[in-house]
Amino acid sequence: MIVESALTAPDLPPVRDVDLTVVGAELVTADIRILRLAPAGPFAFRAGQYANLSFGGLPGRDFSIASRPSDTVLEFHIRDHGTGASRYAVRQLRVGERVGLRGPLGSAVLHDGHDGPILAIAGGSGLAPMKSIVEEALARGHQAPVHLYFGVRGEADLYMAGYFADLAARHANFRFVPVLSEPAGPTAHRTGYVGDVVAADFPDLSGHKAYLAGPPVMVESAVARLLAKGMAGVDIHGDAFYTETDKQKRAAAG
């Protein structure tokens, strides 16, 4: 489940029910699969939104959209959480299968009118909405710096690094920073927790706008560091990705 920010964004597209067909599937880590789904007709959304997907006769689950709003094929990055829809999507869903979609959902979207620096922070499959936001900002000709920090445990969990390196080569204002929290050995990448690395790189974040997506602990920790570095709360927009186990723990805690 995705818990969206408190932001109320104007001009969000209406929620619709749409049929899609799986046209591509790629396992990019041991437990994350990129799905490409072709909608039966036009589907409007804003960069940073998500949708509820249903397949295999299982209850629907929310997954963030990784593609740009102008793309004709929708891209999703889905992590296998060991059960239910996420496991089916990663281990069983096949090209040609039909998928039901309800969306778009969420309001942690790329904001129009901001011409200052953009800071995107992703953890794991939270890379999906950050990819959409970064791509859309650059495609619109955003001139200020755009930073994408991608936190994962180790080298084996890092994906799309080559893609973002190529994107940085085409856009001088874009910077991609992978961060490994538990590297297995020596690495050329930054190490530690992604929020700490961001805090070390920016003495003052006033005037920036931040977008975050990933595990709740990562998002909450990173937000605390952004605020401590002078970023205004109204400039922080994000989704924390709660698994079914997370939901049960939160319910038990009252």
Question: Could you say what the CATH architecture of the largest domain is?
Answer: 3-Layer(aba) Sandwich
Question: Superfamily at the CATH H level of the largest domain?
Answer: Nucleotide-binding domain of ferredoxin-NADP reductase (FNR) module
Structural class based on helices, strands and sheet pairing = alpha/beta
Could you give the count of β-strands?
Answer: 13
Describe the largest sheet: 7 strands, mixed
Straight-line distance between termini: 18 Å
Output mean pLDDT.
Answer: 91
Number of domains: 2
Percentage of residues in strands? 25-35%
Number of helices: 6
Uncertain runs are 1-9, 245-254
Strand order of the largest sheet: 1-13-12-8-9-10-11
Kindly provide the name of the CATH class of the largest domain: Alpha Beta
